[in-house]
Design a protein that fits this description.
The complex is a heterodimer of chains A (99) and B (692). Chain A is an all-beta fold. Chain A contains no helices and nine strands. Classes of the chains: A mainly beta (99), B mainly beta (692).
Chain lengths: 99, 692
């Protein structure tokens, strides 16, 4: 009887290659994923949860419910920063100095 | 504070914006007249100055400097910023002798037009005697009230020293009348090579209409007709042909030609640009974005592809105009005059879902069409979306017009904001890291309508506008949504549409809109959004609390649910070298005791994870399991084990064997999941022992 091979058998994932759903899951590279939700990262070798988002507002306060938007454009003017956007109603609005 | 610039734009069409080097923002939606905003004012103004429609009344007077002969006289409107209209109709005066003056007894003011409020002056022009080719400025009336001018006594010599306004340029192109009002029916504006381009048509189909045989009147129900529809065409379901709209009377009344050939009641309809107009692109004069002589400054994108296509967007690429159709991309280049020396070249059989499905980052354009995302650089298309292309087959066709792209250049990422079939809101962003060429999926608790990146006080920042609020994407090391400090609490009771927790948990209105992520129990990983808070103990949520939530479950306010699942790994075929089976993690320990990681494994392509046979309380290897449960819970608190202060290690073991002869386990899939609550979860390495 031959000696048992006790060497390590397994898959070591040191890098996370990102989401790959358009392939046979048997064939994707180690580290690639079939589900990757809210995690990834900008550094090779690290799987990291996404950054959070913080509530912001325009200068002098505002009504948060007015924000639902179709499109927006940021512009910097000599008098400050603006975001111009279109509400769901179609109206075009701008807010000042978002922070 | 927000300020409404335009209130009458239709919701049926998404606007586009174009910035000019002068700092103005041009806004078009393809239905209403385009507007421009100076970046400061509390309102936007109609683009283009409507020309006078009435010729001046001018007569010969005594004691002037005229020659004997025929003079041509006209005037035009101007605003306070050097923008002008086309000339009025011309008045011809033939003098009876030399030495006469010109008595401008009627110079009509601007009134009753979209642009009349902009008019700050009128300029009076006169030609030299018997010359119909060049006008010269007589004088400016610096108001919009004075209606006469009686001191036009200039000799031709004096007049020739004044500013001249040739009717035509040397190449016979329009000059004096180059100030045409831009088209109303183009929804996309693009600034390119010192000109503003107007392109892309939109349809209108809100409500129903009724017509009577032999009548040109169209009566709408639930419609919001506007005067800008005149000149467009209406196609009514059940009608035999399209009909041109010739007049507007109200939001429910228009007139068409030819008259209706049959009765139709409450029929669906669509108003579209005239067929020959749909892929016509207009452009402004150089450095005059409001000056569009439409009869001259236009060209057509000839669509010779395999099927009809329409322009939906456009953008500038180092001096060339890229025209985006749904399934094609054209590059339009020119030297001096786009309509004379320009040429369009098909560069890709890829297109755009809409004008917002384009963004640029680090010199590369990123686009999204029905086939998925792709990149355009140096005129070459790169199919970056291949790894996730199948996901884009799930796009909800009803929301293609709402998909958009945003960039975060600090993170080197592009987000493709999409809504899949079955989603309840547009809260999904497939995120591409263009530096690493990698994809991930972000799912936000809120519907995201728009996003942008800008420098705020010199600091690059990313913003998202949701159905709840303005959000700023943090660039700090922080994985928590919306709340400053995440809160972990226990469900003490369920209410219809809400949950109870201990007193003080919901401590204030700032948490409205914040996500709640369930950390334990059957609904672990599911997210709801706080809609209303009553006192400090009850929070109502958008939609129902997940049915699996029970009293005693933990939840985190502000937590971010995350998940990673590997591909399928094979168990070795030789029994003798299988060794142990486990999933090992190397991770970054946290200073706080808020985060855990759940390890799961799936055997043989099953959709349900394997569960533990017995309880196991994690020791040094940190992974605890409960009999009958799938999760191996990893405690990543730094103080858990002094051996793992800077790098943590955990292992979940599992059983199974691949017997070469007989039915046995052959494949395994590893899954990691949890909720980030505060510090981001960072995993350095995953090892699946016993499988490869």
């Amino acid at each position: 009887m031959p000696d048992l091979d006790r060497s390590f058998t397994g898959t070591r994932i040191a890098d996370f290659g990102g989401l790959r759903t358009n392939a046979d899951p048997h064939d994707i590279k180690p580290g690639e994923s079939v589900v990757q939700k809210n995690c990834g990262g900008s550094t090779r070798g690290v799987l990291k949860t996404r950054y959070g988002v913080k509530s912001a507002s325009f200068e002098d306060g505002d009504d948060a419910a007015e924000y639902a938007a179709l499109v927006c454009l940021p512009i910097n003017t000599p008098l400050g920063d603006r975001i111009i956007y279109q509400r769901e109603s179609g109206a075009i609005v701008f807010g000042t100095n978002p922070a | 504070m927000t300020t409404e610039l335009i209130t009458d734009f239709k919701a049926d069409s998404t606007a586009s914006f174009a910035r000019t080097p002068a700092g103005e923002v041009f806004i078009a939606n393809g239905l209403n007249r385009p507007r421009k905003w100076d970046g400061f004012s509390a309102s936007a103004v109609a683009v283009g100055l409507d020309a006078p429609t009435t010729a001046p009344t001018v007569s010969e007077g005594s004691s002037g400097g005229s020659e004997l002969g025929t003079y041509f006289l006209a005037y035009r409107f101007g605003d306070a910023y050097g923008n002008y209209s086309n000339l009025s109709p011309v008045t011809e005066v033939t003098t009876s002798a030399t030495g006469k003056k010109f008595n401008w007894s009627s110079v009509p003011i601007a009134s009753g037009t979209d642009s009349s409020s902009r008019i700050a002056k009128r300029q009076l022009f006169r030609t030299l005697v018997d010359d119909a080719e060049v006008f010269h400025l007589v004088t400016e009336i610096n108001d919009n009230t004075t209606t006469s001018y009686s001191t036009d006594t200039l000799t031709d010599d004096d007049l020739s020293n004044n500013a001249e306004l040739p009717v035509l340029n040397d190449d016979d192109s329009l000059n004096a009348n180059r100030f045409g009002v831009p088209p109303f029916n183009k929804a996309v504006v693009v600034w390119n090579q010192d000109r503003l381009f107007y392109l892309g048509d939109v349809d209108y189909s809100q409500g129903t209409v009724s017509v009577t045989s032999g009548s040109g009147s169209v009566t709408g129900t639930g419609t919001q007709f506007i005067k800008e529809f005149v000149g467009k065409w209406i196609w009514i379901e059940g009608d035999s042909r399209g009909r041109e709209i010739v007049s507007f009377s109200s939001t429910t009344g228009i007139t068409v030609t030819p008259v209706a050939s049959g009765d139709l009641t409450d029929a669906a309809f669509v108003i579209k640009t005239a067929p020959a107009e749909r892929n016509v692109i207009y452009f402004s004069e150089v450095e005059e974005p409001e000056s569009v002589p439409q009869s001259q400054n236009q060209f057509l994108i000839q669509e010779n592809g395999e099927y009809q296509d329409d322009i939906v967007g456009g953008f500038s690429d180092t001096g060339t105009l890229i025209v985006g159709m749904r399934n094609h991309l054209y590059q339009f280049s020119y030297q001096r005059q786009p309509h004379l020396d320009g040429a369009a070249q098909l560069i890709a059989r890829r297109g755009m879902l809409n004008n917002r499905c384009h963004a640029m980052a680090d010199g590369t354009h990123f686009l999204l069409d029905r086939l998925g995302p792709y990149a355009l650089s140096g005129g070459q298309v790169r199919d970056i979306g291949e790894p996730v292309r199948n996901l884009f087959r799930s796009l909800d066709d009803d929301y293609l017009n709402r998909c958009f792209i945003s960039v975060n250049q600090q993170e080197k990422t592009v987000r493709f904001h999409v809504r899949f079939t079955g989603d309840t809101k547009l809260n999904r962003a497939l995120q591409y890291n263009y530096e690493l060429d990698r994809w991930q999926e972000n799912v936000y608790p809120w519907g995201i309508g728009a996003a942008c990146e800008m420098d705020v006080s010199g600091v690059r920042s990313s913003f998202m506008l949701t159905d709840k609020s303005l959000l700023r994407i943090e660039s700090m090391e922080d994985s928590v949504d919306l709340v400053d400090t995440p809160v972990i609490a226990t469900v003490t009771n369920k209410a219809p549409g809400g949950i109870f927790a201990a007193s003080g948990t919901f401590n204030g209105l700032t948490m409205i809109g914040a996500p709640i992520v369930f950390l334990t129990g059957e609904s672990a990983g599911e997210t709801v959004v706080i809609e209303q808070i009553l006192g400090s103990t009850l929070a109502y949520t958008e939609g129902a609390v997940p049915s699996g939530v029970v009293v005693g479950d933990l939840f985190a306010i502000g937590g971010i649910a995350w998940q990673w699942k590997s591909g399928i790994l094979d168990f070795p075929r030789d029994n003798q070298i299988q060794g142990e089976r486990s999933i090992e993690l190397v991770f970054k320990p946290h200073d706080t005791n808020r985060n855990t990681i759940a390890i799961r494994h799936y055997l043989n392509h099953k959709t349900s994870p394997e569960t533990a046979d017995m309880d196991y309380v994690g020791g040094d290897e940190a992974c605890s399991q409960t009999a009958g449960k799938a999760d191996g819970i990893v405690n990543i608190y730094k103080n858990r084990d002094s051996n793992y202060e800077t790098v943590g290690f955990a292992r979940k073991t599992f059983s199974g064997k691949h017997a070469h002869y007989g039915v046995s386990d052959r494949w395994v899939t590893a899954e990691l999941r949890g909720a980030a609550v505060g510090d981001p979860v960072e995993i350095y390495e995953v090892t699946v022992a016993g499988a490869k």
